[in-house]
Write a structure and sequence with these properties.
alpha+beta, five-stranded mixed sheet, 8 helices, 33% helix
């Protein structure tokens, strides 16, 4: 075997090894330890991007014409397709008589164009609009902009809900994790009286996570998610929709108190953060006794998040 043949053989086996590891991370990401630096949650936050690694491995395998590498690369291809392939399929038919359209957006407390932001959100023609990081005087702008088309609204702290349909029993949610002092009110629950029946709408803004030398700092986010999950579990209204900046993806185990109780989107990736180059969807729409048929990103606003719109079918 010549030097070129040996290099090709070695490269093919190296690609095969990397492919097996990548497939393992995709298929068994839940087995990655989450103690200390919370490596598991960090991996799960960017799990779809392992697809880039898969494409790179496939290209090298094709260039090297390595049968071993090509066969091995099929493993992560299959794992990625199983996890995310369905999200890329075309959206199913638009919801009919039992359909609800919702928009979720962290509008940013530094947004310099709340009026323009309101126009972008209304262009999606939603039934419900959930906002986070509402601060004066921007709150007044949103209230005026939405007033004609969304006459019913509730604001608690820095989160708010606007609706085409009457709201009732609006109240704050206590999802404050330990150690946070001062005014901190970032959750609300309201009953929406839709023509298709009553829906308990939850709006939440979970604590931020940070990536630093010690890994992913997400303990407060995780605790807040647990409190929110307990509130949803205790909800007696059959249909529930949760809209919020949850500061985590649906694969992040830190959101398990929610994702084990609520359904997530069947179609659409809808990466929402950061707005300048979206890498992950941390703005979520989840539901109980309803199908989140499709979720999509909306055009950029003055926020560092992209808004997302979801089509729900009540059951």
């Amino acid at each position: 075997m010549g030097a070129w043949g040996r290099r090709g053989w070695e490269t093919g086996h190296a690609v095969a090894g990397c492919a097996v590891v990548t497939a393992g991370l995709l298929a068994w990401h839940g087995a990655v330890p989450n103690t200390g630096v919370r490596l598991g949650s960090l991996l799960e936050s960017f799990l779809p991007w392992l697809g880039v690694v898969v494409v790179a491995l496939l290209c090298v395998a094709l260039l090297r014409r390595s049968a071993v590498a090509l066969v091995a690369v099929m493993l992560p291809v299959a794992a990625w397709t199983h996890l995310f392939g369905g999200l890329l399929l075309p959206a199913s038919a638009e919801p009919g008589g039992a359909g609800v359209v919702v928009v979720q957006h962290n509008v940013s407390d530094e947004n310099g164009d709340p009026a323009g932001t309101a126009r972008v959100l209304m262009d999606a023609e939603p039934d419900l609009i959930a906002l986070q990081e509402l601060v004066p005087p921007a709150l007044t702008v949103y209230e005026k902009a939405f007033a004609a088309r969304y006459p019913y609204h509730a604001v608690r702290g820095t989160v708010g809900l606007w609706s085409r349909h009457p709201l009732g029993d609006a109240r704050p949610l206590d999802i404050r994790p330990r150690g946070i002092e001062g005014t901190w009110q970032r959750g609300l629950r309201a009953l929406v009286h839709t023509p298709r029946g009553e829906v308990a709408a939850y709006v939440a803004h979970l604590p931020s996570v940070r990536v630093g030398p010690r890994g992913l700092a997400s303990s407060r986010r995780d605790e807040s998610a647990r409190l929110l999950g307990e509130a949803v579990a205790a909800e007696r209204t059959r249909s529930v929709v949760l809209m919020g900046d949850l500061n985590g993806t649906v694969h992040d185990r830190g959101l398990a108190p929610l994702t084990t109780r609520l359904e997530v989107a069947e179609r659409g990736l809808a990466f929402s953060f950061p707005a300048s180059f979206p890498l992950a969807r941390i703005d979520q729409v989840m539901a109980r006794s309803a199908t989140v048929a499709h979720i999509r990103s909306l055009p950029r606003t003055g926020s560092d998040h992209l808004p997302v719109a979801a089509h729900l079918t009540l059951r």
